[in-house]
Amino acid sequence: MHTHIRARHVPAAAVAGTAAGLGAALAHALPAATWLAPVRRWTPRIAGRGFPDHVALTLDDGPDGASTPLFLDELARLGCRATFFVLGSMLLRHPDVGRRIAADGHELGVHGWHHDNALVTRPGRVSAEIARTVRLVEEVCGERPRWYRPPYGALSAEALLAARRNGLRPILWSAWGRDWTAAATPESVLAELSPGIEGGATLLLHDSDVTSAPGAWKSSLGALPNVVDACRSAGLTVGPLHDHGIPA
After folding, report:
1. CA nearest 140: which of 198, 112, 100, 170?
2. Catalytic residue flag (residue 60)
3. Which of 32, 107, 150, 153 has the fewest Cβ atoms within 10 Å of its own Cβ atom?
């Protein structure tokens, strides 16, 4: 007995449609490759490489009513300014803290509305939420933000275009403190950052635990004086991205 298996014919249009879909997905996700450290070395602007005698200090996920004021107090004591990448949902909840960030001479950047991964968010949402956060920063803090940092460092094509439409420059980081885990300590945060404390670096810490382990911000706050001291001991000025001289 012979069994004949007929090959299924796949229409050319279906093949083309599948290829187009894959191509669109790849184009959407391609900018996220900048999350990888080796890729960031080849994209110094995205990595936040600035003046060789300057270090940019950035803090994500606030403003938080419980923790951010403590960071502001410590930065004032240290005589240091920073860039705070705020979530729109948090700024809406704590507008008074957002106003204090600006009043204390710090810079505000956009981190999105929620801490959503742009690669898996439905089309259109990231664009709308970036624009909404920009408007809220202007309304609450009286300044137009200049920078956009995507949550998780996941920079999608939609997020990239939305940032540009809203006058924002995408920026990631060159070194982070891994300060979001329950196991983090001030000592571990400093140890993680130390290899990246060099001229032109952009350092990433968190002033809120809204997307981190509960209380993780205490490790960042505890590390902050030693981080700033390490930069200054190396002859480097510490400040916000505004003063960092990132090339256009």
Report:
1. 100
2. yes
3. 153
